[in-house]
């Protein structure tokens, strides 16, 4: 009877002494561990169930951590974490103080490169491989990239570069599960499907001379041990044309196929490309049947599966957006909705069903999404680009050059603005206010609740130029949302509470916390609604009868809305002391959203405490206040 157990695998070295049968036992245990563990913490499930054998094979064959593995996106790296000494820490996955859901260099020497935004792995391993070559190191560099991540331009920029870079040991493993978060889109997906079906080779046999143009030289053939697997002289795949030695497709759940193939590839130098086929959710029937639902679930009972809860009392901001989009699309046939591969997360499921010809999933291609929207706007369409704040960072030049500079009418619906919780710093939308407000022509709206979100979406949509509306991850506070498509005046703030001494200027959904603080302080509260254009008249008016200002935003303080107020006061030669509350100048780790906001002093107590610390003389005494406020 075998004594092999996952409990005894503390580093990949422990895998290297195992035979094939033992490795298969480890794979079964590892899959079960991933399922049980993720069901208790929440996290990315389907992708991790799909990479169990691939992870074991890679660590078995390659000499990690000396050899480098870069996990693209990194949401499939849990088996890797478990096999590299973090099995116990999986219990705190994505929780405050616990390990991250993504690879991080500071977390383990086995995490060769930090990932989370997709399609960076080939560039990163190429950089590493060139550095190894220059240092005379005989090291292997492996990028594991999914079929979804492979659709991004950046992956192709890297292939283009790697294919002609001399003397680099780069292995790209394409983990093809025929899924992105939602079903994959685009011509590359079709091409991969043709490779899998064998149709590519079969069709090629009939192409006659065209095939011969692609016949590799005898020397190359000798290098391609996989020639026997293909079993014939075949036309070059796209990846071969780009300078890679293409091998595959092989079954990514079959250790008997994976291990010898990787061993052979390890012996070869130069750019290698291995196409493996896996199943998202492999081994857990419910996830296999619905990999979208199990892509990134919260906690659930694995014996029962995810249970659909009854209709929740509070809508998420994403749902508010999704409904607004459908309503506005019904009212205006020029509206088109765009998502870069985030149909579910961005709230476009219903829109796709209702308006299939006006729905565009462009793949993981944020840059393209922005310029595509610009092109649509040129011809009189009204594009709404639904995009996470953090992913718009990818399309920054396109936003400036292809949209704002030409004053094109594109509405940016920025979801996940501010703290996002379990995904942490890589996904937090901290920077959009700072990077958007400096762009000429941009309108930057910061709705304070669900209804304001709808109102400002309509307002920005009707604005004939580029405009953005930012809203956070998760549910609002339960504010009823009107069904109208009314608009408000752009650049106009609204007074929410008239007080004395201190005026709290709120940009976004921290309004209830700021209001609660203001009630203790007797302060004025203004919902600023827009960072740009800023309501300068409101600021000037408030300055006449207040002695201090406080700005509150769930965004980076540096360059943020508070900075905009400061600039405006300075430009108007208004001298009022200003306290800026928002996100500090550091990356903020994963953890519960409310907990993080409270740690950052951005809940009602924290806001009051900061104001008292700074403007104590202007504040009324604390009556029966909790000790931490005194
Ligand atoms: C730049 C960027 N855009 C979008 C995402 C969101 N995202 C995370 S995983 C994923 C799908 C990736 O598909 P694939 O690479 O095939 O991996 P799989 O989920 O199938 O394992 C997407 C769109 C991201 N992480 N980075
Ligand atoms: C890995 C990745 O980028 C996505 O799966 C992301 O984690 C989704 O985040 P939401 O859960 O906020 O949609
Ligand atoms: Mg995939």
TrEMBL record:
EC top class, as a word: transferase
GO molecular function: 1-deoxy-D-xylulose-5-phosphate synthase activity; magnesium ion binding; thiamine pyrophosphate binding
Gene Ontology CC annotation, any one: cytosol
Occurrences of domain Transketolase-like pyrimidine-binding (ranges): 315-479
Keywords for the protein's UniProt record, in alphabetical order: Isoprene biosynthesis, Magnesium, Metal-binding, Thiamine biosynthesis, Thiamine pyrophosphate, Transferase
Cofactor(s) in the UniProt record: Mg(2+); thiamine diphosphate
Residues reported to bind Mg(2+): 147, 177
RNA-binding is among the record's keywords: no
Pfam families: DXP_synthase_N, Transket_pyr, Transketolase_C
SMART domains: Transket_pyr (SM00861)
Family: Belongs to the transketolase family. DXPS subfamily.
Function: Catalyzes the acyloin condensation reaction between C atoms 2 and 3 of pyruvate and glyceraldehyde 3-phosphate to yield 1-deoxy-D-xylulose-5-phosphate (DXP).
The protein, known as: 1-deoxy-D-xylulose-5-phosphate synthase
Organism from which the protein derives: Pollutimonas thiosulfatoxidans
